[in-house]
Design goal:
With about 210 residues, this protein is of the alpha/beta class. It has helices at about 15-25, 45-55, 70-85, 125-135, 170-195, and strands at about 5-10, 35-40, 60, 85-90, 105-110, 140-145, 155-165, 195-200, 205.
């Protein structure tokens, strides 16, 4: 009997292009998964509309409406408890998510650079690409990693390098990095669903 589809919750803050890519991978049969809930840290995040169009439960948990990070995460975890995801994915989520032991080793984040470069608190979205161009580096890329208690520090699952072109702007660089993200995220989820990832200290081993 075929294994059941992996139950995924998606946390986002913006337009939800990575969420849409996930839907397309599932629709094409390349990923055996089901998005069971989408949670946004902003009321106007377009990713909520993408979820609702597909009949996926969608929730806004605005960060600014909660007095502190703990209360914000209380609200998120209450929703997750109702929908029981096997994996939580942070796809353009700009607020801190606390795994709270329950989701240790079951939470993936995508970051638009090659961690540990150009990462940490305040480094997100176009800020990352602006910093890359200002530093004059020749390579950047995308990273999928497990989430721990610090921003962008968890064990790395997959990375893909993206060359920086002489005439790049933050927008053109972002476009190519996002293309890498669209390849990496589904692959990382596939590996997780196949139980092929094991965390050993700071390293992630990928079993054949």
């Amino acid at each position: 009997m075929a294994a059941a589809a992996l139950r995924i919750a998606v946390l986002l803050s913006g337009s939800g292009t990575s969420l849409e890519n996930l839907f397309e991978e599932i629709d094409a049969g390349r990923l055996r998964a089901e998005v069971v809930a989408v949670i946004a840290s902003k009321k106007d995040a377009y990713g909520l509309e993408r979820a609702r169009r597909r009949g996926v439960p969608a929730f806004a948990v605005p960060r600014r409406e909660h007095p502190d990070v703990g209360a914000f995460n209380d609200a998120i975890h209450a929703i997750l408890s109702e929908h029981e995801p096997e994996l939580v994915t942070l796809l353009g989520f700009l607020s801190p998510f606390e795994t709270r032991a329950r989701y240790d080793g079951r939470t993936l984040n995508v970051h638009p650079a090659l961690i540990p470069a150009f990462c940490g608190k305040g480094m997100y979205g176009h800020r990352v690409h602006e910093a890359v161009l200002e530093a004059g580096v020749k390579l950047t890329g995308a990273t999928v990693h497990f989430v721990d208690a610090e921003y962008d520090r968890g064990p790395i699952v997959l990375q893909e390098a993206v060359p920086v072109q002489e005439d790049d702007t933050p927008a053109t660089l972002a476009e190519r990095v996002q293309a890498a993200e669209r390849r990496l995220v589904p692959e990382a989820i596939r590996l997780f669903a196949q139980s092929r990832l094991s965390i050993e200290g700071r390293r992630v081993r990928i079993r054949a």
